[in-house]
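Team,

Forwarding the record for the chain on the shared tracking sheet. I've put the sequence and predicted structure together so nobody has to dig through attachments.
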Amino acid sequence: MAALMSQPSPKVLGIDIGGSGIKAALVDVESGTLLGVPVYAKTPWRATPRVMLPRIEEVVRGCGWSTDVGCGFPGVMKGGEVLFAPNMSKKWIGVNVLQMIEKVTSGGVVVVNDADAAGIAEMEFGAGRERCRPGGGVVVMITFGTGIGTAIFVDGRLHPNSEMGHIEIGGIEAEAVAAAIARKREGISWEEWGGRVDRFLNAVELLLSPDLFIVGGGVSESWDEFFPYLTTKTPVVRARMGNNAGIVGAALAVNRLR
């Protein structure tokens, strides 16, 4: 998952690759704060490796950084290689993103699933901070956006690439009906969408018996619209790290997963 690195650095470049855009910023990993305004590049319509990799390189160079880099990518990652990326071009399968980023930096590189990156940020500095410890129990971070991303932590330790959004509920993949984009695409009410989210959370609760759910993604800004329709016994809290969670978590992963 990571190339060889020297001693942990207090400053790391975090990159968040998404279906709509690529953003990056230098992060103070000791405080979880950005050291400047993120550099942004729009994801091309045909988000294939051939057209996106130059954009990723552009963002890295735009930050003026050439050492340790952490990157969150929307897919299942192993050794920096993309194994599964349902919301990206199929041409990404088999591509080693880590090796591509290594070409434009002299430092170490870590590439993780984007939801895992957001979860790492929430566990270190956000809503899961009190449970990021031995005996902290099971925490499930869930991001609702174009898809449904999940990150599972047991006693503060990440179980990578969980992809719980692809479980089936009533014969339908959860992501197809409960992702945030599904509410907009179908024009349904917050109550109906909240009910779908609730069924998904209850299914995950049955499978994992978590101690805490953390809900993130852009939809968390509309927390009061859907939270009243959630019925799990497991406490559900709103993510605290906002839109920067992916960048911060990707940077934190460099030292956390080295």
